[in-house]
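WARN  no MSA supplied for this record, continuing single-sequence
INFO  ligand: S-adenosylmethionine
INFO  echoing inputs
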Amino acid sequence: MTNQRDLVESLAGEGLLPAEWRDAVASVDRALFIPEVFEGGDFHADPEAWIQAIYRDAPIITQINDGKSTPEGEFRLSTSSSSMPSVMLEMLTLLKVHDGHTVLEVGTGTGYNAAWLAHRLGEHRVFSVELDPTLAATARKNLKYAGFFPTVIVGNGHDGYPGGAPYNRIICTCTMRKIPRAWLEQCPNGRIVTPWGSSFFSGSYVSLSVVDGEAQGTFSGYPCFMWDRTQRAGAARISDLYHGETGQQGATEIPPQNVIQDDPAFFISLNVTDAWYQWCEADDGSEEATLWFFADDGKSWATVEYVPNADTYEVEQFGPRALWDEVRAAFLKWHDLGKPQRTRFGLTADPSGHRVWLDDPHNVIG
Ligand SMILES: C[S@@+](CC[C@H](N)C(=O)[O-])C[C@H]1O[C@@H](n2cnc3c(N)ncnc32)[C@H](O)[C@@H]1O
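INFO  complex generated
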């Protein structure tokens, strides 16, 4: 993979390049949107590896820890990227963009997606909001070198950008917990697509049709986007959060891995919105594992110990919240509902708030 044509051919070969986006992808060189140094790549140290990396269908992490200098050995949170090209195309397909549309993008990053949109729609129809002023300035520069001048705004994507409204489409490239009211006002009749979720599970797109300011749609996909910076989930290394405290002991008959499968994890995430988990396998070949849960505020944790072929699993819970009890209750509620798949759920968002429903917008469950 050494040039844009290779990227185009590999996407097309995998059936991942919709005809309506082919021209844009073929015409806009990804190299113009990638910094010389990114997480795991350095043009000056190894130009060949740099080139191989950028023309692969893979994300490129372009910023960690909000651009703050991070000493060796410290936790590195990815905070901006050039998204995986096939994922960008998947989102644009969900967005159902038509020629002549005016589009607002939230999360400009390096500007690559804004360039595709500007190529297809014309730069005067493309508006992109980025929270980080340094990233926005770099994106403007990248776009200029590529020959595009869409409007790039520094701001919080929650506010949208009234200056370009009304929009036919809003695409958000960071994970949201809620659909901001401003989006419904600025795209009152159209379509909104965003990665959506809570700290427990954020691997869904929600694709919403908006009619007269009421948005309704369903969940799909397996996106892995960085968080909306203003509403991040907790994230850290276990060693940074656990300091040898002893919690309340207990046991459960639920095999811990059952609660983190996609469908139950999605449902649990509707009820336990501000906690996250990590599955840690023992490295001694025993196939044992610990499922850790942490509250976003770092004050509570829980563990469930998985041992192959066991009938019950040890539980430990520490802090003001009994996190395993919360997860278990939501998991059992999901069982009571007949273990529905994630794709059966939908979301309605209007000025009065958010409602998640199962199968039918009237069957509100959260
Ligand atoms: C995955 S990157 C964007 C990828 C980009 N659209 C592309 O073309 O490759 C997500 C971006 O969202 C930005 N972001 C996060 N929270 C935001 C917010 N509340 N408002 C605007 N931008 C935000 C981040 O700074 C980051 O640059």
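The chain has a mean pLDDT of 96.
INFO  checksum written, moving to next record
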